[in-house]
UniProtKB/TrEMBL annotation:
Location of the region described as Disordered in the Swiss-Prot/TrEMBL record: 1-32, 94-119
Function description: A possible function for this protein is to guide the assembly of the membrane sector of the ATPase enzyme complex.
Pfam families registered for this protein in UniProt: ATPase_gene1
Transmembrane segments: 40-61, 67-88
Organism: Halocynthiibacter halioticoli
UniProt name for this protein: ATP synthase protein I
GO BP annotations listed: proton transmembrane transport
Gene Ontology cellular-component terms listed: proton-transporting ATP synthase complex
Family: Belongs to the bacterial AtpI family.
Keywords: Hydrogen ion transport, Ion transport, Membrane, Transmembrane, Transmembrane helix, Transport
Highest rank taxon of the organism: Bacteria
């Protein structure tokens, strides 16, 4: 009878501890709803900067050599290509970060499931 009484007390104590742990757990991290917009603006800025730098170099060379539209058009197109290349590199970096975060969360979930199955 005493063992059964102790078992009931331990069970109630475990329930109280679990309840307190849940109440003090930090809230799960929420994705910023602006994060995608920030990433999009970053890519747009990279493209515009590439265009601007290409235009500036091309215009400077045209003024220097007296051939106004040739270098400006050429370097503007090269700036556009550089901006697109930078955007693609940024997108692949963001994709690899997302895949890494997904893999980490999957491993964590699998580890928790394995621990719970042992109990």
């Amino acid at each position: 009878m005493a063992k059964e009484h102790n078992h009931d007390q331990l069970k109630r104590l475990e329930d109280k501890i679990d309840k307190l742990k849940k109440s003090h757990e930090p809230a799960p991290p929420k994705d910023e709803h602006y994060s995608l917009a920030n990433q999009a603006w970053r890519m747009v800025i990279e493209l515009v900067v590439g265009l601007g730098i290409g235009f500036g170099i091309g215009y400077g060379l045209d003024v220097l050599f007296g051939t106004l539209p040739i270098f400006m058009v050429l370097f503007t197109l090269l700036g556009f290509a550089a901006g697109v290349k930078t955007m693609i590199r940024t997108a692949s970096e963001l994709q690899s970060e997302k895949e890494k975060a997904d893999a980490d969360s999957t491993e964590t979930t699998a580890a928790h499931a394995a621990e719970n199955s042992k109990d």
